[in-house]
Structure formats: structure tokens, C-alpha cells
Amino acid sequence: MSKTMSHPKIHYINSMFFTIFIFITFLIGAITVNAENPKISFVTLEWEPYYGPNLKDEGYFSDIVRTAYKETGHEISISFVPWKRAMYEAKNLYFNAILGIYHSEERAEWLLYSEPVSESEIVLFAVKGKNIVWNTIEDLKPYKIGIEHGYAYSSEFDSADFLQKESVRKLELNIKKLLEGRLDLIAASKKRLLFWVNTNRPEIRDNIEIVPGVLSSNPLYVAFPKDGENAETYLKEFNKGLKQIKDNGTYAEILLKHGF
Question: Do you know which InterPro entries this protein is assigned to (predicted)?
């Protein structure tokens, strides 16, 4: 073998070190990018048809939030848990933000709210033929009303301690109680209750009706714990991305894609 020829083992070692160098360079670059634009973690409940793990793109609301953040170079992750747990874990900074939440004065003490992302109309449901009529919250005094744990409906309704409100964990439990005559009314998001019935119990659709009148029309937000890391930055970047997708037509396209 000529003295000027390289040993094959040397070529192998050089190649191996070069490969390791490239890998480390790539890894450092990836870490730098992730440090500059970290994935933002959201927590929420399953709240179809707005958001849920079994919906297309995890629901239209999730799709809007994800697309808005893409405009500012962020990815998001969404964890779905029961609502009371979602609130607890957000408050204790296990996550960066809450996906889909109504505004209340109590919540605003510890949360930063985004610009409105969507809206939820809260109405009353009754068994068809009950002919319940109401004009003010006081008119609802005689009725047993089903609500869900930890939800905000409207400031007036929530603070009306004179009402007969019965709280449960899940919407379907209230529907069951209503049909069994153990409730007179259910307070719920119109879009959400109708979606649940049409998806899970279409045979009872003609047994339930919307009581005329709107309890409240609530904007839906994303919100960031004030004590959370980068909370104000994440809020600002979301609002910026949301405005961009509204201005360029992407927001409207997402609604159409999901049938709204």
C-alpha cells in the first residue's frame, strides 16, 4: 500500500465525525428555532361543535386558533380534560392558555383575554309543548333549570341565587333529566346542544324545543394566565394573527370548511 494512500478506517472515522457534526448542527438549529417560537400549550374541555378531539381539525374554533398562530410562526397543542380541571391546571400554569372561554369579572382577575374568536348564543331548552314564556330572569323563578359545573352563562343569570339551578358534570345528564321530567329547563349553548342531540340522539330532536328568548350571547376567547411565561407576548401575537386571517379571508374560509 502506498504511503500517500489513506487508510479506509480513517475515511470511515472522518465520515462518522462529519455526520455527527451535521446532526449536532441541525439539532442546535432546531432548538434555537423552538426557543424562538415555542409550541403554545392550550387546555380546554370537549365542547362540540366548537372544539373536541374527534372533530375535523379538532373543531372550527381550534382550526382558527391554530391558523392564527401559524401567521406568527407558532405551533399549538391542545389537551382536552373536564372543565373544572382545565381551569385548575391553567390557573396553576400547567398550560400556557385556555382555548374557548367566556369572560367574567372573576376570571379577568387572573386571565388576559384575546380579541373575540367566535360567539356562543345561550338559550333555554324545554320539552316540547311546555309553552314556557319568560321576559326577565325573575320570570324563571318557578322552574328547575339544569346547568353545568363551572360554566358562566351571563352575569345576571349566574348571580341570580333565587333561581332553582341544578348543576351536573355533563350536558347529556341534563338532557336525560329534562326528558324524565326532573328539570323544567336547560340553559345551554344553542349550537352545542343541538349538535349533541343531532349526533347522539336524533330520535329525541322533536321532543325538545328552544324557549323563545336569548339568555345571553357570549363572545368566546382564548385566555392566558397573567402569571404565565410570555403571556402578554402570546396574547399579542395571537391577536395579530387573528386580525391577519380575518383580513385576508382565511377566517371565513375556515368557517365554510366546517359548515358554519
Answer: Solute-binding_3/MltF_N
